[in-house]
């Protein structure tokens, strides 16, 4: 779990900083949407998931609750991403739909 959280944190601040330094401060990165996603969506879901893992001992109820956390995460994520990205994702699913049918 520590490695996972470290990877998330590194991806959130290290790569934008690295790009900024490597381009001699010519490319800037708007960190506000990334930080908003991290602090208000991702980290609360991770904390709830960790607490469920630590304190809920039943197998079936625990899995349903974790699926619920993933669904809530996806709903909140869908609300904060840009309209352009939403349309791009919808187009990808439209292209995949014929390939996913069972014959």
Strand content: under 5%
How is the main sheet built?
none
User: How many strand segments?
Assistant: 0
Helix count? 4
Q: Roughly what is the average pLDDT, rounded to an integer?
A: 83
Summarize the structure.
With 103 residues, this protein is mainly alpha-helical. It has helices at 2-22, 32-55, 60-80, 83-96.
Structural overview:
The protein is mainly α. It has a domain at 1-30. 78% of the residues lie in helices and 0% in strands. The chain contains 4 helices and no strands. The longest helix has 24 residues, at 32-55.
List the helices and strands and how they pair.
Elements: H1 2-22, H2 32-55, H3 60-80, H4 83-96
Helix pairs in contact: 2-3
Give the key terms.
4 helices, mainly alpha, 103 residues
């Amino acid at each position: 779990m520590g490695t996972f959280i470290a990877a998330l944190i590194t991806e959130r601040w290290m790569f934008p900083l690295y790009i900024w330094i490597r381009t001699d401060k010519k490319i800037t990165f708007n960190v506000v949407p990334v930080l908003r996603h991290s602090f208000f969506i991702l980290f609360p879901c991770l904390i709830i998931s960790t607490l469920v893992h630590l304190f809920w001992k039943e197998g079936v109820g625990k899995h349903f609750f974790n699926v619920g956390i993933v669904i809530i995460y996806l709903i909140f994520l869908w609300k904060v991403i840009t309209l352009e990205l939403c349309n791009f994702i919808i187009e990808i699913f439209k292209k995949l739909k014929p390939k996913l049918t069972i014959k």
